[in-house]
Specification:
heterodimer; A: mainly alpha; A middle domain of Talin 1; two-stranded antiparallel sheet; 16 helices; B: about 450 residues; alpha+beta; four-stranded antiparallel sheet; 18 helices; 6 strands
Chain lengths: ~375, ~450
């Protein structure tokens, strides 16, 4: 043991020595020029206002409009099931599914309360369960076990069937022994979605739950702050896109054995349209681009303000480029995704890899540059 | 001269600082455990996950079932309370040290420097007579009371604190911290929405100021605390510094623990004053009669034992943080020898890891569904720490073997960003991790951050 005083001197020697060693080391390395942050502040609440007012609220409003007309159209179909009312219903359904994709990344606040994702879009649906619920007149949809028998994937199955023949679909609602059960089931499915969507619209609305106000004013980057939630959910959603919409059908989780029936919207065969719509809506959030294609303040501006770097260029450019690469590669996939994962797996794989690289930039680099923590629970760090 | 210094260390001083330290430490630990369980973290961190990352050499540590976990944490809380009240002090200190350290060893995902610090302090306190004054033990058995102890009984705690600060400061002496003001530039701008001082958080010079002040503070604060003339102002800076870090960073109880612990640098008369105030507040504690001076007397064997132990402990403490020098590569990048070295809030690191499995018999390969086995937090912590990646790969091998794959090959594609530099590949992505085993040897399969 040495006394505190001699410890002090000893410590000073160590300190001086260390400073010398480190200065020497620092001189050996090539120190990059400091990245200079612009001196003016970035207006985070303006960015949140743009995203809230011009992206989130319109996205739910659009979904509500299409769900309303879906319900009206299905009422017509139920009252009078013909090929003509069926095709009209199918058209509106396609639009509804597309509109849903624009809301998928906003699973916080009101949408989180309604378990929006789970209620709307768990796929593939369980057709056996749906058929048995219909034949048993079991119209209850609230149990956890009903997850695979409801939402957009269940409607997709009911309206298109597995035979790609509208006459067979129609028969289920007309001459089938359980036709009236099928009608009730369909109406119930749509009604549930409409109720959930109405609740979320109301939750965000300034005349309802006024979540928009909290969203704009909670400007922190921490867990619970709007930017933290936005970035976390954007990434969660992008990973769902990558894994569920492309990866699983491609056989990424099954040792390379394609799972063509696990695509989203299997029966209406619009998987690729939906993937594209989904990716565009995520890009919109990043760019702060409104549903009517007007660009406002977004995460891109925030990153540019900070001056975040990636390799030799800016992180913002790298992300924008990766979005466009991924979109291009997706657009090259021919035919339906169901066929492509078998016949053109390498083309789908290229798009998948681009999405994976996009995830890396958005989930690793972006949060790190913004000081946003990627965890879904509050936690201590050291 | 050296002899004089040593005799100063063995000279007897009043026990009050040690006694009050015991009370504050126990109370603090009780509050920490209470906070931990109220936040639901017992459930979140130890009940929910199906896989736990064990420390090297501590693979035998078993995670108890839910009831067991709650009993474990209850034991920690109760023993902390007993330490605070000085009831069955030695036994309580032993129970606290063992249970707290056990909980800490359950999963290295949750490694925090301040948990390690608590374990060390608890260990040191096992050998200190902190329960012999102003405690329930002496309330019930006044004959056990001590008033004076050798100065070094207080010195060991001061020295341990000095090491924490010193190494924390030493670790900040690097180019990113001093010349780039990173990671503080990143972390501070994230707070530009703070009321009143928010606009400052966006300024580059503020990040430099904080960085340099942080280094200066860590490296010098102990000297200012030791010096009687500067102690007051130094403690003011202790409060400012740690409160600031508490506001800006999610570091839980650490700032408060440091604020409370550094009180041990104050004089015996200061501590006696505090104890008098406590006694006045709880009037039943007042004994009324003058305090009888009673000195600590060593039993010869005990003296030798404790001295040898302390020399051994502090030598170890001095060397351990330098073990990184034995490894190749940049310490912050590889994290080889990073833990247990008081490297606190030093880097902004974020990462992602994709695992791939290949059936060597059939050639089929695919990606591993991560969220099946890991919590988002475990996934994140693992992605930038090679030893955890390796552990998880071995766990996956075992899982795939259970599923009937005889010869699984596991590789990882992991990307890491450090202090705002663009993400790069972290681990050689062609290496079959199942063929490697963890050891203290250099992990050659970590890629350099500078190569493409």
């Amino acid at each position: 043991m040495f006394s505190m005083n001699s410890f002090k001197k000893y410590n000073l020697f160590v300190l001086i020595g260390t400073v010398l060693v480190l200065t020497f080391n620092a001189c050996k390395k090539n120190i990059k020029e400091d990245e200079i942050i612009p001196e003016d502040s970035f207006d985070r609440s303006a960015m949140l206002a743009n995203i809230g007012d011009n992206l989130i609220i319109p996205a739910y409003a659009n979904l509500k409009i299409s769900l309303d007309s879906l319900q009206a159209s299905s009422n017509l179909f139920i009252a009078n099931p013909t090929l003509s009312t069926l095709t009209k219903l199918q058209t509106i359904f396609s639009q509804t599914y597309k509109n849903y994709e624009s809301t998928a990344a906003f699973e916080f606040g009101p949408a989180e309360d309604e378990y929006f994702r789970t209620n709307f879009n768990v796929f593939p649906c369980d057709t056996l369960q749906i058929n048995s619920k219909i034949s048993n007149a079991d119209f209850i949809l609230v149990a956890a076990s009903d997850m695979d028998a409801k939402g957009l994937p269940a409607i997709d199955y009911l309206l298109y069937g597995s035979n790609k023949d509208n006459n067979i679909v129609l028969a289920k609602f007309t001459i089938d022994g359980h036709a009236s059960n099928a009608k009730t089931y369909l109406a119930g499915l749509i009604n549930e979605l409409k109720t959930k969507c109405d609740a979320v619209n109301k939750g965000w609305s300034s005349s309802g739950g006024n979540y928009i106000s909290a969203f704009k004013s909670t400007t922190g980057s921490d867990v619970g702050g709007s930017i933290g939630m936005l970035v976390n959910q954007l990434n969660y959603d992008l990973e769902l896109l990558k894994n569920a919409q492309l990866g699983i059908p491609l056989g990424k989780k099954t040792l390379g054995m394609a799972q063509p029936t696990k695509v989203e919207a299997l029966y209406s065969e619009q998987s690729l349209v939906l993937v594209a719509a989904h990716l565009k809506s995520i890009e919109n959030i990043y760019l702060g681009r409104s549903t009517s294609d007007i660009e406002g303040l977004g995460l891109d501006d925030y990153l540019a303000h900070i001056g975040a770097q990636y390799e030799s260029g800016s992180l913002n450019d790298a992300i924008k480029n990766k979005f466009s690469t991924a979109k291009n590669l997706l657009s090259l996939i021919p035919g339906t995704l169901t066929n492509a994962v078998i016949g053109n797996a390498s083309i789908v794989d290229a798009a998948y890899i681009a999405l994976q690289q996009l995830v890396i930039l958005l989930k690793v680099d972006m949060p790190s540059a913004l000081g946003v923590s990627i965890t879904y629970v509050d936690n201590d760090g050291d | 001269m050296i002899y004089k210094k040593i005799s100063r260390l063995t000279e007897h001083v009043h026990i009050a600082p040690l006694s009050l330290f015991r009370i504050l430490f126990g109370g603090m630990m009780f509050a920490s455990i209470l906070r931990f369980s109220l936040k639901g973290w017992i459930n979140e961190l130890y009940v929910k996950p199906v896989f736990f990352f064990k420390y090297y050499g501590f693979e035998w540590v078993k995670v108890p079932n839910e009831t067991g976990l709650y009993i474990l944490f209850a034991l920690i809380a109760i023993s902390a309370l007993f330490i605070m009240f000085g009831l069955f002090y030695r036994f309580s200190a032993l129970v606290f040290f063992l249970t707290f350290t056990y909980a800490e060893l359950l999963d290295k995902t949750n490694y925090l420097n301040h948990y390690y610090f608590v374990s060390i302090i608890a260990f040191l306190m096992l050998f200190l007579p902190a329960g012999k004054y102003f405690s329930l033990d002496v309330y019930f058995r006044p004959s056990k009371k001590l008033t004076h102890i050798p100065r070094w009984f207080i010195g060991v705690i001061q020295l341990q604190l000095a090491l924490v600060y010193f190494f924390a400061g030493l670790a900040k002496l690097n180019a990113d911290w001093l010349l780039g003001a990173q990671p503080l530039q990143i972390w501070l701008q994230a707070h530009s929405d703070m009321p009143i001082i928010g606009f400052l958080m966006d300024k580059v010079w503020i990040a430099y100021l904080f960085s340099w002040f942080g280094v200066f503070y860590d490296l010098t604060i102990v000297f200012f605390l030791l010096n009687q003339r500067t102690r007051g102002i130094a403690y003011f800076f202790v409060i400012v510094f740690h409160v600031l870090t508490a506001i800006l960073f999610p570091i839980g109880m650490f700032p408060y623990i440091m604020i409370i612990c550094t009180l041990i640098f104050f004089s015996a008369s200061f501590h006696l004053g505090v104890i008098e105030k406590i006694k006045k507040f709880f009037s039943f504690l007042q004994s009324g009669n003058e305090e009888q001076v009673k000195h600590y007397v060593y039993r010869p064997f005990v003296k030798k034992f404790i001295l040898v132990l302390m020399v051994f402990h502090f030598t170890f403490q001095l060397l351990l943080p330098f073990r990184y020098l034995l490894y190749q590569g940049n310490l912050f990048w590889t994290e080889q020898g990073y833990r247990f070295s008081w490297r606190v809030m030093l880097m902004e690191k974020n990462a992602i890891a994709y695992f791939y499995v290949t059936d060597r018999d059939t050639g089929g390969s695919g990606e591993v569904m991560m969220n099946n086995y890991l919590s988002p937090n475990q996934e994140k912590m693992m992605a930038s720490q090679p030893d955890m990646i390796l552990q998880y790969a071995h766990f996956l091998k075992q899982k795939y073997q259970e599923l009937g794959m005889k010869n699984p090959k596991i590789t990882v594609e992991s990307y890491v960003t450090l202090n705002g530099k663009g993400s790069r590949l972290f681990i050689n992505k062609n290496i079959d991790l199942t063929l490697l085993s963890d050891s203290f040897e250099n992990k050659w399969w970590i890629l350099s951050p500078y190569e493409k």
